[in-house]
């Protein structure tokens, strides 16, 4: 009796294996295949967004460091006049200086950005005057800018020895609004103008 039941199940197995897949097996296979395809496409899309974000950040970092290197190459006593917001103190006449805003090729400005620039140089004053007693914690002010060991309300646009600044790049990226800041202090101490 034991032999006959095992023969019957073996015969059923052979018959069933010859019939192919059942509808439930097909549905489970399709579900597994769909799930795997969705996971693969999600991974590929996330990887592409990550690569875009890295590229955008690299553009922002490069533009900020390039501007900083450019500022180091300029005559130090002209940096404030060239890059503040006021055209009144531009060294070659009103409207001749680059000002605080700059473009970064490859980065899109924010959707509601009025000036259309992604980069800007933030100084302690919009110009044309530079004061030590300005209250700006981000730039470490109030602070002695001209080295006389006194924080006063005088205009130091012509005699500063240090110049705190932030180079900011803000853009509409593939992952939404993005921001990069480079905070530094430019110093003219020990520089010899030629």
Spatial strand order of the main sheet: 1-2-3-4
Number of strands: 4
Radius of gyration: 33 Å
Structural class call reads alpha+beta
What is the count of helical runs?
3
Uncertain residue ranges: none
Strand-residue proportion: 15-25%
Tell me the series of helices and strands, N- to C-terminal: HHHEEEE
Could you give a short account of the major beta sheet? 4 strands, antiparallel
Looking at how many chains there are and whether they match, the oligomeric state comes to single chain
How would you sum up the global shape?
Answer: rod-shaped
* Integer average pLDDT: 88
Q: Give the CA-CA distance, first to last residue.
A: 111 Å
Helix share bin: 25-40%
- The count of domains is 1
Descriptive notes:
With 194 residues, this protein is an alpha+beta fold. The protein has one domain (50-187). It is 38% helix and 16% strand. It has three helices and four strands, in the order H-H-H-E-E-E-E. The mean pLDDT is 88.
């Amino acid at each position: 009796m034991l032999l006959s039941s095992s023969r019957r199940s073996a015969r059923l197995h052979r018959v069933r294996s010859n019939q192919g897949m059942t509808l439930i097996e097909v549905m489970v296979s399709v579900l597994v295949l769909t799930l795997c395809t969705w996971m693969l496409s999600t991974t590929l899309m996330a990887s592409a967004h990550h690569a875009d974000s890295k590229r955008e950040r690299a553009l922002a970092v490069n533009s900020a460091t390039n501007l900083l290197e450019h500022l180091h190459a300029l005559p130090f006593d002209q940096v404030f006049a060239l890059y503040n917001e006021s055209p009144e103190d531009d060294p070659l006449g009103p409207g001749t200086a680059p000002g605080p805003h700059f473009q970064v090729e490859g980065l899109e400005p924010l959707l509601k950005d009025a000036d259309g620039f992604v980069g800007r140089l933030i100084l302690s004053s919009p110009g044309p005057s530079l004061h030590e007693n300005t209250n700006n914690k981000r730039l470490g002010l109030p602070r002695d800018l001209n080295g006389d060991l006194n924080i006063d309300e005088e205009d130091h646009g012509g005699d500063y020895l240090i110049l705190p600044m932030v180079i900011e790049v803000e853009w509409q990226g593939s992952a939404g609004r993005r921001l990069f800041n480079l905070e530094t202090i430019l110093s003219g101490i020990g520089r010899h103008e030629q």
